[in-house]
Amino acid sequence: MTRTTELAVAVSDKKGTGAEPNLRRSADGYSFYLHDTHWKLNKDINVAVGWAAQLGSSISRSYWEVLAYYAENHSGDHVRNMNSRAKAYFQHSSDQLFSVHSL
User: Fold this and answer.
1) 24 contact partners, CB below 8 Å, separation of at least 6
2) What is the mean pLDDT of residues 8-17?
3) Contact 47, 38 (CB under 8 A)
4) What pLDDT, in 10s, does the model give residues 54-66?
5) Per-residue DSSP letter, 33
6) What pTM was computed for the model?
7) pLDDT (tens digit, 9 = 90+) per residue, 29-86?
8) Cα separation, 44 vs 64, whole angstroms
9) 8 Å CB contact between 85 and 70
10) CA-CA distances (angstroms) from residue 23 to 18, 36, 84?
11) Of 7, 10, 58, residue with least CA distance to 66
């Protein structure tokens, strides 16, 4: 059974219609929803990711997907640091795109 299949079997959405694709599990086993404003990744780490919604739907979705991958596979400290650095970048950049020119 693949990880996706295991997740689909183990988790049902709030309406009870099947797997919830936005439900993720951190490397430390804590569940979080992709579009929540805060992700609890372990007993000590709670990452505020809601700020990314202001980037626009396609950029924020991509950002959350990438950060979720790291949350699933790396430490909560690493994810918190990445989120903090990305937030600072977008706050101090006049460009809402992440590009070589904006660095």
Assistant:
1) 31, 32, 33, 34, 68, 71, 72
2) 38
3) yes
4) 988 888 999 999 9
5) E
6) 0.74
7) 999 999 999 999 999 999 999 999 998 888 899 999 999 999 999 999 999 999 999 9
8) 20
9) no
10) 12, 10, 22
11) 58
